[in-house]
Amino acid sequence: MRICIASDFFFPNMGGVEEHIFNLSQCLLSRGHKVIIVTHSYDDRKGIRYMTNGLKVYYVPIKVFYNQVILPTMICNLPLLRYILLRERIEIVHGHSAFSTLAHEMMNVGKLLGLRSVFTDHSLFGFADLSAVVTNKFLEISLSNCNHCICVSYTGKENTVLRAKVHQAKVSVIPNAVDTAHFTPNPSNRPLDPDRINVVVVSRLVYRKGVDLLAGVLPKLKYLSNVHFIIGGDGPKRALLEEIRERNNMQDQVTMLGGLEHSQVRDVLTQGHIFLNTSLTEAYCMAIVEAASCGLQVVSTRVGGIPEVLPESLIILTEPTVESVYRGLMLAIRKEADKRQIGCMYMNGDLDGSGNGRDSAAGSVMCPFERNNIVANLYNWDNVTTRTEKVYRKVLQEKETTLGQMMVNCLRSGVWPFLLVISLCHLILRLLDWWVPRRHIDLCPLDNPFWEGTAVGSSRSRQSLTSDVKVHVHPVPGSSSGESFRRKRHKFASSS
Description:
By secondary structure, this protein is of the alpha/beta class. The chain contains 16 helices and 16 strands.
């Protein structure tokens, strides 16, 4: 299969959507599929770039309008997007994030070119405020012609079905995943002081992440000198937390790390015993899965799809209020203290075969590596990729959507003027077929030259490459194989 993943959110920007796109792309590549990513330019990062295992990324020269999202023109970028889809011989367009204008534009162009479209929704929206009303209506128009939708939780599915008016049979639930081989516990990274308990918070410091709840909880714990907070992340609410820290003289108990690269998150998580999440709305929340994979006891608000993510043994759920979050955090602190008390009993020989001393905290003790093993069995990228492939195969079996059907589907949304946009896009594409005929477009090779054994015209199926595919190792400059590598690279660059 030849897949184009489109989104405004990708590297070097960091976040849950970006991480999801990258990991999904890598797994699809390893299974022999052709995958490209289309996003907008980031500063001087423009043109075509290649990432791990030959992942091809188009940083199209489109300026950002607001919050890393391009201006929704629908027609201005159409010639460039058409050229990319035809040049790469794409079969499926996969858009990510309801906020991404580029994803919706690429899906619209793909449908007009007769391709199949899939959309993954990563967020939850309300129904009352003006921003949600506009976003929901735009999403309804965009998804009216989408072949299939993917949500990361059942709560997200219900939300998408209601606000975008998508039939539930066209929506599948495929959760996110985490690389548990990377997010592994490291107890030696925790503080040497046996009485100290570290509470870690890693989040964007914005209103939606419940920073105000965190600001209300901090003063309640200032009298527990053995409890320390490590807060990673940046945002407009950072000033509020710094003010609370100064006002309550908690400089020794609260450490502000600022913005973190994703590669730094694991090192921060392994310093803690408890992970605190105070989000006000979440469709899935990757942060709590990464924290549980690192062996931390998770305390989180009971909002959105969070109750579906982790089993009760790994998470303490609270209501999104200061008092409830405080009680949940205190319960986690007591569990941590009980765990250490049991450790001391083992060292002093107090726990014999009779089970004396276990009753108070037997159910609260869990090895960090056992937590990692539970998460590894629940969420892994191989499972996510397999389920996504099933969606791709399903949409490829559907009939091509005609222009008339697209216009009828748009009519159901009630926004009749959008028919003019669809019609204008169709006319521009017909004009481009005459101005830049498809036969004049230089086609890219179907196979990934960074993988061995993927010659064009190979009789074996592309899915069969999973077991025996290997990555080319770039030779050291000046070695005997350096010249041959440069010739291959020159040949590949000229062909693409």
